[in-house]
Every structure is written in structure tokens, then in C-alpha cells.
Design a protein that fits this description.
The protein is an alpha/beta fold. It has 25 helices and 18 strands.
């Protein structure tokens, strides 16, 4: 059997990690990581394309990467990876699965402390030796010890980002809906509730010929392996190593099954408990009137909830909190939608060397999305030595070529370890919008630093509040309640950052902020034109936070936002 895309990507990721540990050229590391991402997300078998000499035609995969894929097919492992495995102790690679430990930190632990095993690392953390390393402290040691006790990397290996799952889900739904036997098809499970990370992907369908629809599902070009197959159920694994489950059910109970498998578990438990008090029993295939034994089924979710006496809670709210009571009392909020956004308040251009879209390209893409404004907030450390003023001139030129659209002058400033900002107040005063963010020293009084910069009259918004990276690192230990309280007092906005591996503020934090009356923009932190579409992910988290259009700052035109600034 040819290696799956995930296996190829894993080898490239490991090759990148080992190369970085060995301090090899950064351009190689970047190329390996980029190719790993392309391969992992590909819906076609890359090994097969490489053998045919066609893999190099894909973006991010050149002749060198294609040759390495062929090496895996023929020899089981990339030759460059085998070589580097011999240079780096295996235990050092294990460090990379720990929170806050990247290749550079792993290299320092190895070369400066001589530690090459998890046991040795645990001993060093317990004795306080790790905090002597650059970039580490007592908090880092605590997180490492906690991770070692819990089992290194187990959860991260099982889950995938919502952004990875959504394209696959939509592809499958579209293909199944196009099948001549399909009557209705829907995503279900945690992806339908738009959880920030997901495990298996669930689909519910009804069909005039269930086996035929199952056949079509198992025969998809994106399918790498069929794990289970019956007349009404099937489980497959895609080339990008996602596990997908399909259930084809009778049309008359489609609504019941869809509701049940959308979940969440807590939502369904509360629904059943309330139903029991009314003499009803709910299962995935219908509602039973206990006294008479009569079973009532529903082809539509709305009809099911109406039968039970509720409005239909949006899937994003079905987490077993207050949605049942709100649905019963007619208090479900009208949640914000992607179409409500009027502009972008945090994005980057090629003035930040880690971004790929010019100001004009970003502006045209934003305008094409129906936006009326775009605030360019390039990283402050790329705008020194007169570059900030030069950027302003380019923004002015771009605005001169645009109609019914405005590019705004913004910046993303760093909150230093000592709590100061890395741009002077005189410069900040000349900007339309200022985002202040933690990027380093997450274990050094993060709450105090964030609360402190809120007092600056020029700081409009705090970016990605905790600095977390989903499946990679925990966020800084921020006292969110205190930050929210200070945000209200100072009129500082707290963003929902839509980057796929950030989604920061998380839903529970955003709900707290929304209920307190904090101004909340949904931003993409886009570093390319394509990343402006990440707004959908941020909106999903805002919906999970019960937020309405009125609670989201950038659902307003810029002239109204400007009046709401400090």
C-alpha cells in the first residue's frame, strides 16, 4: 500500500524539526513545513502523483519534495530524514510534543543541559534547571510536568483544526447531495457545532437507495481506506487522514437522527431530562410517548424541536448551557453572520515580511468580499526607520485608486516583557487603529501587561488575548475576568482572532466579554489575501459565544467605529 498523505507530511514535519534543531538553513525548514501542510491537506494521493511525476505540479511541491516522496514509497523513509535521525537523539524529538517546546528550545535543552530523554527532562523540571534557559521560566516547567503526567501529546494527536475539517466536510456534502438518490444530506457532530477542534466527521443522509449512496461515499476520489461498510453505514479515512462516518436513515426520522448526532452530549441529556418530566422518551430515531407507547418521528429538525415545545437552537449553541431554556422561552439570540461584517480591523501586508499580500491586493480582496474598509495593522518591528511613514504614503496612493472603499492606517504593537509598547505615543496618535498583542514572554505577568496597556489612550484593541496556538501551545495564564472588567472601564476592544490555530478569544471568553458590554471585533489577522476568508471561523466562535450583530464592532461602518474609539 502506498503511504498516505499524512505519513508523508509527518516525515516532512519531522525533517523540518530536526533540521531546525541542527540549525540548518531556515529556507529549507520553511520549505519542508510548507510542503507538509500542502500534502496533509491534499484530497488526492500525493504518493501516486509523485510516482507519475505529477506531484511537482502542485503548489508548494517542487522536484526536491517530489523526489523525497518517491524515496518514502521505495525505501520507507526520506533519506534526508534518516540521516538527521542519526544526528539527533530520539529523546530530543519527544520534547517537541510538549507544550511550549519548539525545535530551538529542544536544541537548547539538549546542547546546554545535556538532556536527551523525557525522564531526564522531568528531573530537570522538578529541580528548577529549565528556567535557566532563554525563553523558559517556572511556568514553563509547570506546564511540562503537567503534560508529562497527563501523557505527552495524546489529545493533540487525536484532534484536527476546524479549518482543516470544514473544506473536507463541504466537499463530501456537495458530492453526496449531487448523487441522484440523495434526498437530504447534512454534516453533524462537533464540526456542525463549529467546535474549534474536531475528531471524527459525521454525516447524516436520507436517500431513495441507501446502498447506492453508501457506494458513492466509499468510492470518492478523496477516500484512502474504507474501514467499515454496510447498507446504511460506512466509515472511511481520507487521504488527509480524516475519519468520516456516514449514516443513511429513513426520511421520516431524518430530523431526529440529525439532531441526535449533532449533539452535544450535554445538550441531548438536558433535552431528554426535560422530556422525561413530560412523559416523553427521546432516542435517535424518534420521540416515544411513554404512557401510550406511540413513537413520533420527524423528517425535519425544526419540527422535532417544535414538537418538544422549543424554538430550534442554532447548532453552535447546543452545548448544554442555557440554550434549552432560551429555546423554550423564545429568547434565542439572532446570532451574528459572516454577511454582517463591514470591514477588517487586523491584517497584514508585505510591509510585514511574514505576509504575502500587498496593501492594494488585500484591499481589492476585502472589497470583493463586500467590505467597505480594511485596516492594515502590520507588525511594529517591521516598520522602524521611516518605514511606518513610507507605508502611510502607500496607503494614501492605494486610497486614491479605490472608490467606495477605504484603507485605514493601523499597526500591531508588541507588549514587551516589561509591559511597555514598542512604538512611541506620538506615532500611535497618528493611526486610525492600534492593536496591542503579547507575542513573547507569555509566563511573565501577562494579565498585568495587558491591563497596563489598556490605560494607554491610543490602544484601541487587544489582539489574540491569550496567545494560544491550538494543538501546539496553551495560552498565557490571563485573568480574563479582570481583563474584561478593565476593557469595559477603558473602552478597549478585545478581538476574536480568526486565525485557524488561534480562535482567540475562545468562545467562553468571548461570551463573558459580550455579556459585559466589551467592544468585540472579529478579525482575521490575515497575512495573505486568501486568509481574509478566515472571518468565517471567527464568526463561528462568536456564534458559539451567543454574540449578535450589535455586539460585534466591525458590523458597523468605519465612521461609527471611529466615534466609538477612545
Amino acid at each position: 500500500m502506498l503511504p498516505r498523505n499524512g505519513e508523508l507530511a509527518d516525515q516532512l514535519d519531522l525533517l523540518a524539526d530536526l533540521s531546525e534543531i541542527l540549525e540548518e538553513e531556515s529556507f529549507k525548514v520553511i520549505a519542508y513545513r510548507r510542503a507538509a501542510g500542502r500534502i496533509r491537506e491534499a484530497a488526492v494521493p500525493i504518493a501516486e502523483l509523485a510516482l507519475d511525476g505529477k506531484a511537482k505540479e502542485l503548489p508548494g511541491i517542487g522536484k526536491t519534495i517530489e523526489a523525497k516522496v518517491v524515496e518514502v514509497v521505495e525505501d520507507g523513509e526520506m533519506h534526508a530524514l534518516t540521516k538527521r535521525r542519526g544526528l539527533v537523539p530520539a529523546g530530543v524529538v519527544d520534547f517537541l510534543r510538549l507544550p511550549g517546546v519548539g525545535p530551538k528550545t529542544a536544541a537548547r535543552i539538549w546542547t546546554q543541559l545535556g538532556i536527551t530523554s523525557l525522564d531526564g527532562l522531568k528531573t530537570a523540571a522538578e529541580s528548577g534547571r529549565l528556567r535557566d534557559l532563554s525563553g523558559m521560566g517556572a511556568r514553563s516547567e509547570e506546564k511540562i510536568l503537567k503534560a508529562l503526567e497527563a501523557g505527552v501529546g495524546e489529545e493533540a494527536e487525536q484532534r484536527r483544526l476546524l479549518a482543516t475539517a470544514l473544506p473536507a466536510v463541504r466537499r463530501v456534502v456537495a458530492e453526496l447531495e449531487a448523487h441522484p438518490t440523495a434526498i437530504a444530506v447534512s454534516e453533524a457532530g462537533s464540526v456542525r457545532r463549529r467546535r474549534e477542534t474536531v475528531r471524527d466527521l459525521d454525516f447524516i443522509a436520507t436517500s431513495s437507495d441507501a446502498p447506492a449512496l453508501i457506494d458513492a461515499f466509499c468510492a470518492g476520489t478523496w477516500v484512502s481506506e474504507v474501514l467499515a461498510r454496510g447498507d446504511t453505514k460506512a466509515t472511511v479515512v481520507s487521504h488527509d487522514e480524516l475519519r468520516l462516518d456516514l449514516r443513511v436513515v429513513p426520511e421520516d426520522c431524518y430530523g431526529n437522527v440529525l439532531q441526535h448526532f449533532t449533539g452535544s452530549k450535554d445538550h441531548n441529556i438536558k433535552l431528554r431530562e426535560e422530556a422525561q418530566r413530560r412523559g416523553l422518551s427521546i432516542s435517535e430515531y424518534g420521540v416515544t410517548e411513554v404512557e401510550s407507547g406511540k413513537v413520533v418521528t420527524h423528517a425535519d429538525e425544526d419540527d422535532l424541536y417544535a414538537f418538544l415545545g422549543y424554538g430550534t437552537p442554532p447548532p453552535e449553541l447546543r452545548e448544554g448551557t442555557a440554550e434549552i431554556a432560551a429555546a423554550r422561552n423564545g429568547d434565542l439570540p439572532a446570532l451574528v453572520d459572516v454577511a454582517d461584517l463591514k470591514g477588517e480591523l487586523h491584517c497584514h501586508s508585505t510591509w510585514s515580511t511574514d505576509a504575502r499580500g500587498t496593501i492594494e491586493e488585500m484591499a481589492h480582496t476585502a472589497k470583493g468580499r463586500g467590505y467597505a474598509f480594511l485596516c492594515v495593522t502590520d507588525h511594529s518591528h517591521y516598520l522602524r526607520g521611516g518605514r511606518l511613514e513610507a507605508q502611510w504614503r502607500e496607503i494614501e496612493d492605494v486610497n486614491g485608486r479605490l472608490t467606495r472603499f477605504r484603507v485605514l492606517r493601523g499597526i500591531e504593537v508588541n507588549i514587551r516583557a516589561d509591559g511597555s509598547l514598542d512604538v512611541d505615543d506620538d506615532s500611535l496618535a497618528q493611526l486610525d487603529w492600534v492593536v496591542a498583542s503579547l507575542h513573547t514572554s507569555f509566563d511573565k505577568s501577562p494579565t498585568e501587561r495587558i491591563v497596563g496597556v489598556m490605560d494607554n489612550p491610543h490602544v484601541d484593541c487587544i489582539g489574540h488575548l491569550t496567545g494560544r496556538r491550538l494543538l501546539k501551545r496553551e495560552g498565557a495564564p490571563v485573568d480574563v475576568e479582570r481583563v474584561v472588567e478593565r476593557a469595559v472601564e477603558t473602552g478597549t476592544a478585545l478581538e476574536i482572532n480568526s486565525q485557524p490555530d488561534r480562535l482567540d478569544m475562545r468562545d467562553t471568553h468571548a461570551r463573558l466579554a459580550g455579556e459585559a458590554g466589551v467592544k468585540i471585533p472579529i478579525t482575521t489577522d490575515a497575512h495573505s489575501v486568501g486568509a481574509l476568508s478566515y472571518a468565517e471561523l471567527g464568526v463561528a466562535q462568536a456564534r458559539r459565544a451567543w454574540l449578535t450583530k450589535e455586539q460585534i464592532l466591525n458590523t458597523r461602518p468605519w465612521r461609527e467605529i471611529a466615534k466609538l474609539r477612545k
